Amino acid sequence: MSIDQKHIEDIPLFIENRDFAAIRQLLIGLPHADAAELLQHLSPVQMAVSFRLLPKTAAAEIFEYIDADHQESLIRALGDNDAAGILNAMSDDDRTAFLEECPEHAVQLLALLDPAQQRVALQLLGYPENSVGRMMTTKFVSIRQDWTIHHALEHIRDRAKDVYYVHVVCSVDDSNRLLGVHRIRDIFLADPKSHVRDLPSAPPLYLKVTDTQEHAVKTFRKYSRTIIPVVNGDMKVVGIVTVDDVLETATEEAAKDIAFLGAVEVPEEPLLRTPLHRLIRQRAGWLVILFIGEMFTATAMGFFEDEIQKAVVLSLFLPLIISSGGNSGSQSSALVIRAMALSEVTLSDWIKVFRREIISGIGLGSILGTIGFARIAVWHELFPSLYGEHWFLIGVVIFFSLIGVVLWGSLAGAMLPFLLRRLGFDPAKAAAPFVATIVDVTGLVIYFVVAATILRGTLL
Amino acid sequence: MSIDQKHIEDIPLFIENRDFAAIRQLLIGLPHADAAELLQHLSPVQMAVSFRLLPKTAAAEIFEYIDADHQESLIRALGDNDAAGILNAMSDDDRTAFLEECPEHAVQLLALLDPAQQRVALQLLGYPENSVGRMMTTKFVSIRQDWTIHHALEHIRDRAKDVYYVHVVCSVDDSNRLLGVHRIRDIFLADPKSHVRDLPSAPPLYLKVTDTQEHAVKTFRKYSRTIIPVVNGDMKVVGIVTVDDVLETATEEAAKDIAFLGAVEVPEEPLLRTPLHRLIRQRAGWLVILFIGEMFTATAMGFFEDEIQKAVVLSLFLPLIISSGGNSGSQSSALVIRAMALSEVTLSDWIKVFRREIISGIGLGSILGTIGFARIAVWHELFPSLYGEHWFLIGVVIFFSLIGVVLWGSLAGAMLPFLLRRLGFDPAKAAAPFVATIVDVTGLVIYFVVAATILRGTLL
User: Fold this and answer.
1) Per-residue pLDDT tens over the stretch A318-339
2) Which of A219, A313, A368 is facing B287, going by the closest CB pair?
3) CA–CA separation, A457 and B125 (whole Å)
4) Which CA distances in Å does B316 have to A298, A307, B54, B312, B404?
5) Is A367 an 8 Å CB contact of chain B?
6) Is ipTM strictly over 0.85?
7) Domain ranges (residues) in chain B
8) Domain A142-256 has CATH 3.10.580.10
9) What pLDDT digit, counting tens, does each position of B362-385 carry?
């Protein structure tokens, strides 16, 4: 499903004709996410005009689906009164996300909130960035274990006016400490005269307010929940995390990995809206670091200048040899990063992976080495002058170099994610370009040393 | 949260002492996902013994959390009677996933099902792989628009015994065609004497049974839902998709991207459990293709053998130059793949991206070129004999080559994902190693052509 091109063209016409009822009807008739998408296609003024026509609750809900850039310009176009209405009616987790995105106006915007909402917003923004506290909502329903089911249902019905998610509720003791997590289905099915404490309940699953968002994603995935309560250090329930925010976080984490794997910083804005000078600055950082790393290849090559002078033929195969090391290293690092992301492999498995990579590296190196040797043999048959009388020895050099370089690339690529995780970094930073850079320098040393050993007395 | 090491050690002791009550209590006391994880740590026999102690419903639910390999061996260890019990009690979406994983036993396992379950299982397996039909469950509640709220609530309560998800229900007409999607909260809050048709309802969001799972992930993300109904070609409701399966699919899609980006096939089994010969075969495919691609570097180098012979100094910078092209290409492709994954960029944006990459490429190339020139100038000051009297011209060659190679790398890297998507492939296949291979051959041609132009009459 996606929005209709016609709708985008309709709204400006409606505005021109002052047919405001039509705009309201159009926007309310769409799912909120589509209404938000439609608004984002309008000019800032058209957007503000249309938005002001919406009933308050719908406005707040549609606002939550608008992206951060448009949210900011819309809030500014609306004026303080309307802006205050929206901000107070927003759900608190989405509000935290919005305020995070515009730090320079956050104080101004906070001032627009009711005292109660202000307290909530400040509390949520007080949790560390990227923590569960920053993604939770404080609007949830809890019931007491000593209540009857009848009383609990009355309470839930009562609270449902203000709370968006009621299909999972926590039960707590009289100090608000978490005791159980119940599905509305089970409450529904229970005898109204029985007590909450008699409900079926798995041991309550919870997140701590200081847990990382990555941990939240893993927990949701593992336990297949839609809502998980959040507790503070005293096990008191302070909020809930809902699966829609988790799905969003999971997608962003995955996109972050893609950026890492290409050795660029994670862009903060959509690609086409990032000013070019900023994009160049972001890319230049890693590119320069990689470039400086690669400079060691020039230094290393310097040591073998004599060999190259004597046997220029060696230089012909240089790009082939070193890129094979980089490619096998990229494969190994991708396999390990992926296995870590899926929790198939932990830090302590490094030695198992290391042993397996030795066999894989030698196996793959032999395959490439054989192809490399065959290529030289065939070319020698076709053009006997190309590699001269020593073609066989050159082939042997290529064969053994490829085994060495692929083995080294596989080991380095597989171990780098472990090393990064051990040092507390994201293993996904072991991107192909970094692996290739590390492997290039060593790869060419391996190549020339193998060549020097085998060709001594003949070509060298 | 994770399971306790002590629990893993306890179970074998309990089995030895024939203390079966203790095992049952331990497993039931854990969240199902943890009980499943614990079982997977046991030997196949211990696992089957422990599993048989569980009450039927708990057994089916815990079974759903066990990974496919262990599921298969467990089912075989259980014997037909117990296996049939589990398979019939499983939720149908998880059963489809399980049957997908063991195609060679699927027929045998299908035979164990009750006729009704058999029909459902065959129906679901009849949908194309990777379609919404393969991830949906047919257990859902629908209510009729002409019912009263009171009647609807009675119906939901009644169905809740068999249906896991009741917090969102569809309303349908008398031919089971989708009319609305309602949250249990709204039904709760409505006047029991009013009718279902009076409930607040956004236009119903739905998935088609033939939609791709990727589309399902995008829809869940965009509209923040926990349940979306699935309709067939006649708009009749045939099932629902729940967010937990979507989160799982989203994670797997992301992991697939990681594998692609390292130029390996997506492994089907956990890394450490994949037999090495299969892993080597999987990796060898792409590695050989990349190797053959890189062979063209040797061919291209052959054309410049004379130049290298005359000015060996040129070969020293070769790895540096061509790797810079590969690195900038990896960055561009990662940025474009990421933007496509987040739906920031569509096919028609290619020309905008192309124009922006021209500027980025020249900008980044100039930065690297300047550093490269500076390095030669500084080294010349330190070791005047290194590059000889023509150091300045060599520096100029490096400067312009880097601009050319980085520009070319950026353009090729940015356009490859567009090309792949245009041809119907996954743009994430534009992995760093492929980009690097394409760029290496062209990069060295650019380098030697620039060198030949600038150094003609001096070094060459």
Assistant:
1) 999 999 999 899 889 888 888 8
2) A368
3) 67
4) 5, 12, 69, 7, 18
5) yes
6) no
7) 5-126, 142-256, 273-455
8) yes
9) 999 999 999 999 999 998 998 887
